[in-house]
Amino acid sequence: MNKTITIFLSTLFLWQHIAFSSSIKPSAFEISEEEVTQRSQSDILRLVPRTEIGDSLKILQRVFESGRRQIKHEHKYGQSFPCNPEMLYDLMSQAPGKRVLEIAGASGENAILIGLAGAEHVYLNDIVPEEVEEFQRQVETLKPELKDRFTSIAGDCFDLDEHLEVNSLDIILARNIFHFLKPSQYDDFFELVKRLLKPGGIFAMTVNSRYSEHGVAIDDSEGTLFSTFMTIFDENYVKPIALNRTLSICDDDTKDPLIYTNHHVFNGFTIDSDALEKLPKSLHTTVIESIDRVSGHRGQLRILENIIRLFTPENLSSLVENAGLEVTSTHHIGTNGHYISEEQAKTTGACFVGLIAGIPMD
Ligand SMILES: C[S@@+](CC[C@H](N)C(=O)[O-])C[C@H]1O[C@@H](n2cnc3c(N)ncnc32)[C@H](O)[C@@H]1O
User: Fold this and answer.
1) Rounded CA gap, 143 and 223, in Å?
2) pLDDT digits (tens, 9 = 90+) for 31-70
């Protein structure tokens, strides 16, 4: 079936957070307004020993309610986001004496804070070497006795078995990587998590949410909901601005979500029919309209066929439970990284879905 619905959303800066509200059932793990306790920087700093407060504050300030930044070198991997203070607080509270892994942690500020809260050892993984180097630079600024607490593992998370022993970890954190995976990789991802965690271990993740300020109800029961970005870069390709974004339903779950379709084809913001032909037909109208709208811009227009899947607490929980983990909580997360209530997600929008799960004891 090649039935595709393409909805054009002309939003500036709506880089990874489009979602829909009206056809969503209440979450099984719904959090009411009163139950969302937001954590401050002071709350988080209370979890580190007095001697580590200075270092922790420096790291925390980089990611607490911060802006997003582009992942170094590899535009296709999107952006690095502010920390999720409530999730971080939860993990830091449980960190003392624990062995922790952050998957796809970019420059690893979360991992460092968990380490400073007293983890026995913290591993930081990311596929982009420049991000891992930045993590190492930050670790190098710590006191000598703390540096040994951290190990970086640059490379594909699916190769982590080569570096870590089975049942050797207490906590795994994976923020904003899962929505990049092909559905055919989900099982392998959860198997990896289950293999590496000890029984009773904790798995925490965040993914892009289907709730947004400008949500449009859409039923993706006929296929998988994907989003496609159209982005303008400055001449150095370092400051992408999302011009607009399309959402489509597609029944082809096998497509690689990280196809980086194009670098230069729409140079000058004129419609190039040869280039257009290389893109899926379902996107043509949107692309033509979009280029028309931004024809006054200068620079390179790249079409990122950077497909990400959008999640709700319900569909994410089902995936995680079906994989054999026990979901303990789900959360809506706002732009600044904090947990927000279901009510807020529905009225003002949400950026991410957060989930915490456990490995059964037996
Ligand atoms: C959207 S960014 C999120 C970064 C960070 N976790 C955050 O939430 O701010 C996705 C990250 O996943 C990393 N990544 C993508 N594919 C990966 C893979 N197969 N193995 C490890 N890291 C990967 C990218 O380099 C990038 O740092």
Assistant:
1) 51
2) 444 578 899 999 999 999 999 999 999 999 999 999 888 7
Report CA(250)–ligand 1 centroid distance (Å): 24
pLDDT digits (tens, 9 = 90+) for 346-361: 788 888 999 999 999 8
Amino acid letter at 17? H
How many Å lie between the centroid of ligand 1 and the Cα of residue 104? 4
**Which parts of the chain fold into alpha helices (H)?**
41-45, 53-63, 85-94, 109-116, 129-140, 144-147, 186-196, 273-278, 284-293, 313-322, 342-348
Burial of 339: CB neighbours in 10 Å, binned 0-12, 13-18, 19+: buried
- Which of 91, 126, 153, 158 best tests ligand 1's pocket when mutated (most atoms within 8 Å of CB)? 126
Same domain, 134 and 256: no
Compute, in angstroms, the gap from residue 61 CA to the centroid of ligand 1.
Answer: 21
**Residue having the nearest C-alpha atom to atom 13 of ligand 1:** 104
Residues 40, 304: Cα–Cα separation, whole Å: 36
Alpha carbons 135 and 150: distance in angstroms, whole number: 10
Helical H segments across 197-253, by residue range: none
**CB of 168 shorter than 6 A to ligand 1:** no
Q: Based on the domain organization, do 141 and 273 belong to the same domain?
A: no
Same domain, 95 and 203: yes
User: What residues are paired with 353 via a beta bridge?
Assistant: 207, 332
Q: Is the CB of 178 under 6 A from ligand 1?
A: no
Structural domain includes residue 113: yes
Q: How many domains does the chain have?
A: 2
Domain containing residue 338: CATH number: 3.40.50.150
Q: Is the CB of 153 under 6 A from ligand 1?
A: no
User: Is 100 near ligand 1, meaning CB less than 6 Å away?
Assistant: no
Query: Model pTM?
Result: 0.78
Domain assignment present for 160 = yes
SS3 of 84-99:
CHHHHHHHHHHCCCCE
